[in-house]
Design a protein that fits this description.
Length: 156
């Protein structure tokens, strides 16, 4: 199952980008044997500053046709890392070809796009900067692959 991270904004050379690149590499390496990956990042940018309504169609174009859509949203389901791993494994086992994790811009994800989501996940009730959410998500994807592989990376 191919994994896509569709996000508003472009990450330039930064500590966040270094972390993301590291976790993407780890996920791809661990996930390959499990039928997960590759993990591809699709960045979109609303150069006119139209906010959520302008970002929604850009994000929709970045999502592969037929992909399961999972928004990263403060209103989403809060889950443990093993639960997230099981969710990813279930989607894979159901034969999903693509899953797209969607991260909105500074104001979040437009309600019209949230309504199209098959699932929604939250990293808690706190609001996180969207660039940090990318780091957190790529780490959790790697952790999920590690859990599914039975690796000791995740300890309870």
């Amino acid at each position: 199952m191919r994994v896509h991270l569709c996000a508003v904004g472009r990450l330039r050379k930064s500590p966040e980008l270094e972390l993301i690149d590291d976790y993407v590499t780890r996920f791809d390496r661990t996930g390959r044997a499990l039928g997960l990956g590759p993990l591809t990042i699709h960045e979109v940018e609303d150069k006119k500053g139209g906010g959520m309504p302008a970002e929604a169609p850009l994000l929709e174009r970045a999502i592969p046709k037929g992909a399961l859509i999972c928004t990263m949203d403060e209103r989403g389901k809060v889950m443990s890392s093993p639960d997230f791993a099981n969710l990813l494994g279930r989607w894979r086992d159901e034969g999903r070809g693509d899953v797209a994790f969607v991260i909105g811009g500074a104001d979040g994800i437009d309600p019209s796009l949230r309504a199209k989501a098959d699932a929604s996940v939250s990293f808690g009730k706190m609001v996180w900067p969207h660039m940090l959410v990318r780091v957190m998500l790529t780490e959790q994807l790697y952790r999920a692959a590690s859990i599914l592989a039975g690796s000791p990376y995740h300890r309870v």
